[in-house]
Amino acid sequence: MSRGFTSQMARNIFYGGTLFFVLLFAALIFDTEQRIPKRSNAGELTPAVVRGKHIWETRNCIGCHTLLGEGAYFAPELGNVYKRRGPDFIKAWIKAQPTGAPGRRQMPNFQLDDKQLDDLVEFLRWTNGIDTEKWPPNVEG
User: What does each C-alpha distance from 40 to 5, 28, 45, 59 come to in angstroms?
Assistant: First the structure.
């Protein structure tokens, strides 16, 4: 004779389901943690990359640009700018700012010297090497 659905059965289903999903979540975290180091093919963090990241942060580039999808959407994505434009273009563009073109957003001139430009370009080269699994979806970011 069936007594129906009891509170003890409901409690067992709740605890069993909770345990199952906690274990599933832990397995997914473990799998992700194992994959991330294999995906990062950007190369070694050199002192130039570290200095370039410092320039990126102190000039608040993320306040206007996105980098790998993170940041503001006021200016272009720079995660793949090294591949799109190359180091010489990046340096010339930064030096030429602001262009003074009417009706366009203007990037400020940060008065970076050649060493700082080289470091910033090295940081952008390093970020270009990260496997982003095809992000951004188009080549222009």
Answer: 51, 19, 12, 26
Strands (E), 22-108: 66-67, 70-71
- List the domain boundaries for the chain: 1-39, 47-128
DSSP 8-state assignment for residue 77:
B
The tokens describing 16, both together, are 């069993």
**In angstroms, how far apart are the furthest CA atoms of the chain?**
86
- pTM to 2 decimals? 0.72
Is residue 44 classed as helix, strand or coil in its secondary structure? coil
Q: What is the pLDDT of residues 16-50, one digit of tens each?
A: 999 999 999 999 999 988 877 666 665 678 999 99
Q: What is the CATH number of domain 47-128?
A: 1.10.760.10
Cα 107 from Cα 97, distance rounded (Å) = 6
- Angle CA 123–125–31, to nearest 5: 90
